[in-house]
Specification:
D-Maltodextrin-Binding Protein, domain 2; globular; binds magnesium ion; five-stranded mixed beta sheet; 7 helices; Fructose-1,6-Bisphosphatase, Chain A, domain 1; alpha+beta; binds 2,5-anhydro-1,6-di-O-phosphono-D-mannitol
């Protein structure tokens, strides 16, 4: 159709308007999008492609890998290593960084990804996705793991691709959030929403309620008040959703608002949370903020956290601004009282 704006055209036009997408970055985003198309095909084949089930290996976090975790990781590496736009990559599924081999030119960007988020949903045919984050390589000779340890506020591009009833790519380069739907006949991502906005208020929250007995006081208080509905201090009823794929939960919040919570809890007190700062919390937090929402670990804006480890975990509360601020206020009150 004549009025269809492809991802390529969107990126070229953005560059003309605000100069925010240099050609190497444009190439990088297009390559990531192409890789997501391949992953989407593999996901769609499911049992017919022999891609379901576990791979009988563990990742660096000690979690059993699914076959699709490994396939998605390989697709992203193979697609990105030869283009000359990257210096190195880091993945939730790999212990060490992957430096672009000497046989290819090295570019000025670093790519981080969770190749297949929501792994527990693969075999049950529920939405899953790929999350990515792009940083600039600091000046200096050889690329090191330390080069990746930049706060989320330093990201130059971030996004995710959700493999659901539709395959949708969601992107920010720091000038708002745009959504692209995969047109399977054309084989291209087509712009379907620009200037995405998360409503400031919501009546919907997302949390794994089975962890309730392990929560800290501010989390307990926030959820308890939501559950009291019109009879409680909030004076309104709340709905709950938990997909167990952060991509799918965040996609719903970007579409109609809500608050997503994976807070610290007492199950493993020395772990700051379940989700990973560099592959999940940072890119999602930037998208949410770019759409007018907020994101915190309870005490600090996620995008301000100075990382100390590539695979570090973090407590995450993000979504509709007024709800996230309310949670932060409860955390501050609890800190004061202790
Ligand atoms: P994964 O990257 O290994 O798939 O784990 C991250 C996922 C998130 O997508 C989701 O929000 C969370 O883990 C669900 O955790 P739980 O099963 O504890 O509810
Ligand atoms: Mg994940």
């Amino acid at each position: 159709m004549a009025n269809h704006v492809s991802l390529t055209r969107y990126l070229v036009e953005q560059q003309r308007v605000d100069g925010s997408i240099p050609s190497q970055l444009r190439l990088l985003i297009e390559v990531v999008a192409r890789a997501c198309k391949s992953i989407s095909h593999a996901v769609n084949k499911g049992a017919l492609g022999g891609v379901l089930g576990t791979a009988e290996s563990e990742n660096v976090q000690g979690e059993i890998q699914k076959k699709l975790d490994i396939i998605a990781n390989e697709v992203l590496i193979e697609a990105n290593e030869w283009g000359g736009h990257l210096a190195a990559m880091a993945s939730e599924e790999m212990e060490d960084i992957y430096v672009v081999p000497n046989r290819y030119p090295q570019g000025e960007y670093l790519l981080l990804f969770d190749p297949l988020d929501g792994s527990s949903n693969i075999d049950v045919n529920v939405s899953i996705g790929t999350i990515f984050s792009v940083l600039r390589k600091p000046e200096g000779a050889a690329v090191t793991e330390g080069d990746f340890l930049q706060s989320g506020g330093q990201q130059v591009a971030a996004g995710y691709c959700v493999y659901g009833p539709q395959t949708t790519l969601v992107l920010t380069v720091g000038h708002g959030v745009a959504m692209f739907t995969l047109d399977r006949e054309q084989g291209s991502f087509v712009l379907t929403q620009e200037h995405v906005k998360v409503p400031e208020d919501t009546q919907e929250f997302a949390i794994n309620m089975s962890n309730m007995r392990h929560w800290d006081e501010p989390t307990r208080r926030y959820i308890d008040e939501c559950l009291q509905g019109t009879d409680g201090p909030r004076g309104k009823n709340f709905n709950m959703r938990w997909i167990a794929s952060m991509v799918a939960d965040v996609h719903r919040i970007l579409t109609r608002g809500g608050v997503f919570m994976y807070p610290w809890d007492k199950r493993e007190p020395n772990k700051p949370g379940k989700l990973r700062l560099m592959y999940e919390a940072n890119p999602m937090s930037w998208l949410i903020e770019q759409a007018g929402g907020a994101s915190t670990n309870g005490h600090e804006r996620i995008l301000d956290i100075a990382p100390t480890q590539l695979h570090q975990r973090v407590s995450v509360v993000l979504g509709s601004k007024n709800e996230v601020e309310r949670f932060q206020h409860y955390c501050a009150q609890a800190d004061k009282a202790s």
